[in-house]
Design goal:
Blueprint (H helix, E strand, L loop, with lengths): L6 E4 L5 H12 L3 E6 L2 H11 L6 E5 L5 H15 L4 E3 L15 H29 L2 E6 L12 H21 L3 E8 L5 H6 L6 H11 L8 H12 L10 E4 L7
Length: about 250
């Protein structure tokens, strides 16, 4: 197993890409701290994944708040004895053009997509250093590179993640590696919510699938496989990189 007994925090892990990453890491031997706002969903997932043995815990809370991230790190230490891998994956669309969204929506979008990553790394990196070796695998988006109608705060926040992760890679190597995955259109609830910004949401989704060189939408396990690669020793010489997992969207 590629992540045997590696203690991992995955934010946004009660649905979509985050859930797929948590499941894949668990299959590869990791000990996983789940994070999400929905206590009901988080507890149900914790119960499901612990049917074989107790290798998963759920810690609920608002990921935009410093204390939630501190609680995640403390739970990893208390339950599993330390921390090896951080996977900040929580995301929020907060749809609207820049003249349409309120300051509150702007702050909420930045808080979920960018500031929450600061909080998790702020509390988590010292624990990775204490282990002598650690890894950060952030989940961004191709929205870091291009604009999408009605996605002002989402694009801005995801755009900020890439230089942040590269700076972490520069500041904390060789003890900590840090990389970021930039998914393209992945068939998750968030993609369908995103399509609501277009006049015909169903057509927008079918069109993007057709425009993708692979002629399909991605699925969460596509991203989970990439996350496993970047978290494992298979990528030991990769640091500060942004990996597009988009079916070739960015080559067009």
């Amino acid at each position: 197993m590629k992540l045997q007994n590696k203690v991992t925090i995955v934010t946004g892990s009660t649905s979509g890409i985050g859930e797929a990453i948590a499941r894949r890491f668990l299959e590869e031997g990791a000990l996983v701290v789940l994070s999400g706002r929905s206590e009901e969903r988080g507890k149900a997932l914790e119960l499901e994944l612990n049917r074989k043995d107790e290798r998963v815990i759920f810690v609920g809370g608002d990921i935009t708040r410093a204390e939630t991230n501190r609680a995640l790190v403390e739970a990893a230490k208390r339950s599993f004895g330390g921390l090896d891998i951080l996977v900040p994956c929580a995301g929020s669309l907060c749809l609207g053009a820049i003249t349409e969204i309120s300051a509150e929506t702007w702050e909420r979008g930045l808080g979920t997509n960018l500031t929450s990553v600061y909080h998790l790394l702020h509390y988590g990196i010292p624990e990775l250093q204490a282990r002598g070796q650690g890894c950060v695998v952030a989940v961004g988006s191709i929205a870091a590179y291009r604009g999408f109608p009605g996605h002002a705060v989402y694009c801005a926040a995801k755009g900020g993640l890439i230089p942040l992760i590269r700076q972490v890679a520069a500041d904390y190597a060789p003890t900590v590696r840090a990389n970021i995955i930039c998914p393209g259109p992945i068939d998750t609830p968030m993609l369908h919510d995103s399509a609501a910004a277009f006049p015909d949401p169903e057509k927008a989704i079918s069109d993007v699938a057709e425009r993708t060189p692979m002629k399909r939408l991605g699925i969460p396990t596509d991203v989970a496989s990439a996350a496993l690669f970047l978290a494992s020793d298979d990528s030991a010489w990769i640091n500060g990189s942004a990996l597009d997992v988009d079916g070739g969207v960015m080559i067009n």
